[in-house]
Amino acid sequence: MSDKADLYEKTDRYHGMLEEALSNLRVTQMGEEIEKIVDEFLTMAESYYRDGIHFRKEGDMVNALICFTYGHGWIDAGVRLGIFAVNR
Questions:
Q1: Which of 13, 29, 41, 48 lies at a 20 to 30 A Cα distance from 59?
Q2: What is the pLDDT of residue 5?
Q3: What is the 3-state secondary structure (H, E, C) of the chain?
Q4: In CATH, what number is assigned to the domain containing residue 60?
């Protein structure tokens, strides 16, 4: 498999992973003290998802992959903090 094919496959895989995580995300904690953090993490994940789609449509697979992985990172960090759960 060529490097270009690897990039396309990995971009597709991470796009799907982030899309699935956002679809199955559940906020596990809420309250005045944590609400701002929950909103920020969710906004960042969703923004990176939208940016990734934009870059993918433009044919910029490197930046699309970066966006999808960063977005997934925000969700993963939220899960590790205990503010999100992702049902699979």
A1: 41
A2: 76
A3: CCHHHHHHHHHHHHHHHHHHHHHCEEECCCCHHHHHHHHHHHHHHHHHHHHHHHHHHCCCHHHHHHHHHHHHHHHHHHHHHCCEEECC
A4: 1.20.1270.90
Helices 3-23/61-81 angle, 10° precision: 40
The CA-atom distances, in angstroms, between 25 and each of 3, 4, 7, 39 are 32, 31, 26, 13
**pTM score, whole prediction:** 0.89
Handedness of CA 87, 72, 49, 42 (dihedral sign): positive
Crossing angle of helices 3-23/32-57, nearest 10°? Answer: 150
Per-residue pLDDT tens digits for 9-57: 999 999 999 999 999 999 998 888 899 999 999 999 999 999 999 999 9
